[in-house]
Amino acid sequence: MRNAPFEVRPIAGALGAELHGVDLARDLADATVGAIRQALLDHLVIFFRDQELSPERFLSLARRFGTAIEYPFVKGIDGFPEIINVTKLEHETINFGGVWHSDTTYLEEPPMATLLVAREVPDAGGDTLFANQYLAYETLSEKLRGLLAGLRGVSSSAKADASRTREDRIRTDGSAAARKLLVAEHPAVRTHPETGRKALYVNRAHTVGFAGMTEEESAPLLEYLFRHQIRPEFTCRFRWTAGALAIWDNRCAQHYAVNDYAGRRRIMQRITLAGDRPN
Ligand code: SIN
Hints:
Blueprint (H helix, E strand, L loop, with lengths): L6 E4 L6 E4 L9 H14 L1 E4 L6 H11 L2 E2 L14 E5 L24 E8 L7 E5 H6 L3 H8 L2 E5 L3 H4 L3 H7 L9 E5 L1 E3 L6 E3 L6 E4 L4 H14 L6 E4 L6 E5 L3 E5 L8 E8 L6
Parallel strand pairs: 2-3
Antiparallel strand pairs: 1-2, 3-14, 4-16, 5-16, 6-14, 6-16, 7-13, 7-15, 8-9, 8-12, 10-11
The structure holds succinic acid.
Succinic acid binds next to strand 15 and strand 16.
């Protein structure tokens, strides 16, 4: 089987590219999957427009890129435990993921990548921002990079910055483990297992401190890194349309769901793919 070649159009200088000419609802040749994966490694987050993906197709697509796993706190949709709704309804005020983060870094093996498909979006608003963590690392001074080489960040699922953003979803779709505390320790700088590049790996949503230091001792350096790692020149912004799909690499990119569509609804579905233990 062969698929026609697709076009890659970067959407910003730092990261992000739209891929045009791929119909993800069709069976994809191994070569096409390989080329999409390479585009993900090159651009950190990739986007597709106007895809018609039933939950079955969405899941089978995700499985071409890795092993789909269940999100720890929110139940999957009926018949598909690996797919969660990321919804904000007209009367709700809090949006899921409205804080800079890499997904679930409080797991020992945080997800490698995430797929998010837009089912219904407001006419304007509800964009998602992404930030390149290779650039965040590479633009630090040599001294600070040296210091970070010896530090491990502690991530907790209970940090208020993140836990308040999932309250509405836990209320409606919470899993049995919704209130469980999960904590994991990872290098503050990780080496990407496929590209070999180093990326800053702390995030405002989940990192509470450095191992061996108190939260108070850790806070000033963490605060500096949280502000540095999302500098505008490291970011891109994606404007959703119904049927658009994003795939991002959690090992080297962070994301932030913008909450600027009060009174309107935004309905998305999400799958995460198993990752490895960061090194
Ligand atoms: C998320 O953090 O997975 C949600 C991103 C979004 O809804 O844009």
